[in-house]
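Format notes (please read before filing issues)

Several people have asked whether sequences and structure tokens are stored in separate files. They are not. Every record keeps both together, in the order shown below: the sequence lines, then the token lines. Line labels are part of the format and must not be stripped during preprocessing.
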Amino acid sequence: MAFQRNSGGQQRGSRFKKRSFSESVSEFDSKLLDLARVTRVTAGGKHMRFRSVVVVGNKKGKVGVGVSKGLDVQQSVQKATKLAKKNLMDVLIVNSTIPHEVYAKYGPAKVLLKPQRLGRGLVAGGTVRAICLLAGIKNISSKLLGRTSNKLNNARATMQALKKLKVKVIKNAATPTETNS
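Then the structure lines:
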């Protein structure tokens, strides 16, 4: 006998144990930049798939872009998110902005990123804004100089620009010289 009832009418020794399902809390935020329906035409007919471009970041200096295709929207978004997490890069942030002006080109897309003073905010649009927001850059100015409106190329150009960021090292002119005594 699996169930026994006590005097209160409650079950004791139940076969079914309560399980607590805890969702895996991700430290990364993600944003879907672009979702396109793409078709491959063969002799057998048209094969339709979905292409997703996803940006992933933790708002503390790590950001990544992933692109993937799948048979349905959910599958392509999941694959792109997984690839974005795999391709994370560190972004150099100084006082909630970038240390210096930087320019990058990827295909026809050209992007210019400039540092801004504290309190100016994110002066960027579309793709660049999403990437900077997820990277944790709070004060920046950007300009897309290319004529393309392709979000994937603009995202890759922005990532190229963020890779070019370096720390400026200022050497002291008055360095102490060694004297022989």
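For reference, the curators noted about this record: The chain has three helices and ten strands. The helical segments are 73-86, 126-135, 151-163.
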